[in-house]
User: Which sequence fits this backbone?
C-alpha cells in the first residue's frame, strides 16, 4: 500500500519556531507532523517554512505531488504588510493553483482566507484562549463532511487574537460561536479546495496549557483571568487532562466532554479531511 506524503507548512518565522521549541520542545510544524504520524502510521512528512527569507518557493506543479498540504498556526498577522506575510500568501496561492487538497488551523485558515481575497482582523476587545466553547454548525455546515461526527455543539482547543472578518468569494461558512463568527470554513479558489478551522484539532491539552502560560500577561490584560495565578490554574487543569483524559473531576472542572479529552475526538476534522478529500484523490490517481 502506498503511504501518504503530506506537506506541512510552518506559518512561524525562525524566531517564533525557536521560541516555541524552547517552551514545548517542538515547533508548530513539528507538532502537526507528529499528530499526522500518530493518525497515519508510516506517513511521509515533509516540512517547509514559506515565511523564511531563504525558503525556496514551491511551484504549483511541485505542490501537486503531495497528497495534501497542512498549514499550521502561528503568531503571524496576515494583515501586516511584511515580507514574511507576502511570502506566505504567495505560497498559499500556489497551493490553491496546484489543486492539492489543503487544511489549515488558526493562522492557516487566515492565510487561506487572505490569499483568496477575504479579510482578517485583530479581534475587537477579546481573545479566545484555551477552549473555543459551544461551536455550532451553520445551515451550510449541517451536512458538510468536514464536521461529520461532531455533536450539535462542541468545544475545541483554541488560542488566537485574530479572526476572519470576511470570507472570500468561494468561501462557505460552516461553523461559528459567540466569540468568533468563522470557526470553520471551506474555500474554493483557483481550482483548489481548502478546509480550515480557527481552532486547533492537532493540539493536545498539554500544548494548549503551554500556550496559555506563554501568553499569561496578555490573557490577564484581556480580562480572561484576574491574575497570572488564575492562568496557571487553568493551565494546570489542562495538564491534568492531558495525562488523564478520562478523569471525570478534571472534565467537570473544565466543563468539557470526552470528545475534547480524547485525541480521536479532537482530531475529528483532520480525519474527515483525509477521508473525504485526500484518500479518494489518491485512489483516482
Assistant:
Amino acid at each position: 500500500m502506498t503511504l501518504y506524503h503530506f506537506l506541512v507548512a510552518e506559518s512561524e518565522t525562525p524566531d517564533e519556531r525557536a521560541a516555541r521549541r524552547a517552551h514545548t520542545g517542538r515547533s508548530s510544524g513539528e507538532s502537526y507532523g507528529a499528530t499526522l504520524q500518530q493518525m497515519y502510521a508510516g506517513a511521509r512528512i515533509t516540512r517547509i517554512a514559506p515565511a523564511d527569507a531563504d525558503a525556496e518557493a514551491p511551484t504549483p506543479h511541485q505542490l501537486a505531488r503531495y497528497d495534501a498540504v497542512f498549514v499550521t498556526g502561528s503568531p503571524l498577522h496576515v494583515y501586516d504588510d511584511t515580507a514574511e506575510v507576502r511570502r506566505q500568501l504567495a505560497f498559499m496561492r500556489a497551493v490553491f493553483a496546484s489543486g492539492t487538497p489543503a487544511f489549515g488551523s488558526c493562522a492557516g485558515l487566515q492565510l487561506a482566507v487572505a490569499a483568496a481575497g477575504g479579510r482578517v482582523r485583530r479581534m475587537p476587545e477579546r481573545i479566545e484562549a484555551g477552549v473555543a466553547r459551544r461551536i455550532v454548525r451553520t445551515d451550510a455546515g449541517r451536512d458538510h463532511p468536514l464536521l461529520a461526527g461532531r455533536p450539535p455543539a462542541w468545544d475545541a482547543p483554541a488560542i488566537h487574537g485574530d479572526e476572519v472578518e470576511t470570507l472570500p468569494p468561494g468561501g462557505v461558512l460552516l461553523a461559528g460561536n459567540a466569540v468568533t463568527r468563522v470557526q470553520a470554513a471551506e474555500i474554493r479558489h483557483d481550482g483548489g479546495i481548502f478546509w480550515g478551522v480557527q481552532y486547533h484539532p492537532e493540539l493536545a491539552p498539554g500544548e494548549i496549557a503551554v500556550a496559555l502560560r506563554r501568553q499569561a500577561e496578555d490573557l490577564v490584560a484581556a480580562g480572561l483571568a484576574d491574575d497570572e495565578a488564575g492562568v496557571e490554574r487553568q493551565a494546570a487543569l489542562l495538564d491534568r487532562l492531558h495525562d488523564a483524559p478520562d478523569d471525570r473531576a478534571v472534565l467537570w472542572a473544565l466543563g468539557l466532554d470526552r470528545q475534547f479529552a480524547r485525541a480521536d475526538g479532537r482530531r475529528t476534522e483532520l480525519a474527515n479531511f483525509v477521508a473525504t478529500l485526500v484518500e479518494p484523490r489518491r485512489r483516482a490517481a
